[in-house]
Design a protein that fits this description.
Distance between the termini: 58 Å
Number of domains: 3
Strand order of the largest sheet: 1-2
Oligomer: single chain
Helix content: 55-70%
Strand content: under 5%
CATH superfamily of the largest domain: Voltage-gated potassium channels. Chain C
Structural class: mainly alpha
Length: about 280
Amino acid sequence: MNSNKEKIKNIIFGTDTFYGRLFDLVLIVSISLSILMVMIDSVSEYHEDYGYIFNYIEWFFTILFSVEYAVRIYCVRRAASYIFSSFGIIDLVALIPSYLSLLVPGIGVFSVVRILRVLRIFRILKLVQYMGEADNLKKAILASRRKIFVFLFYVSSLVIIMGSSMYLIELNTDGFENIPKSIYWAIVTLTTVGYGDIVPTTNLGQMLAAIIMIMGYGIIAVPTGIVTSELKSIVDERRQNCVVCENDQQALDAKFCNQCGAKMDKKSRKATIHW
């Protein structure tokens, strides 16, 4: 019993066997096809003509992924560790809409949640190794959250002032009937989106709009610079110095200096020359 369970586990979670690679390949194709089907089904013309076919296909994939989800729970030593893991939650959430549609009519609109299945490809293709880089980015964002909060507060104050000013300038003109709409226009203009649904018509209003647009180009770059600065600090903390050539851009796990070739001493974090 345990040997069969171990074999199934190696096939589902492992990639070093023929059947393990075959399982991953079939799973990738199934996930890709199910996502493609969800996207095509969202087109009203195709949904009206072929909706019943898409429904059959979706239930096929739902049953397939449900069986796979149950087998994964069966194979792992601690079921809760998989169920409450990030990928386990994604697997479950992607299955729920189909079953809820049987109980609650009209909830089929939430079937778009099934797009989350694409995240499972990260695990299958072993892209989890890049999670370390994502963790660095998360740390950088958390470290710069106060600076970003101050920046957003400044921008919010700016759009309120600019929007209120435009309301006074463009008073009783189309689109600027009240301050909230004027603030909406200021946000759209400052972010350089420019929908064009509200346009100033007076010379002074157009001059203020031009100033806001120019300011927008500079303001957009500020959060990027803040996060980049924090990210560089985090990356630099994970480096070591070479005392021979004084190069401080050595990876923390480097065995030799990438500039002079000196051997890095792990205990003392120093470099020694070996001729």
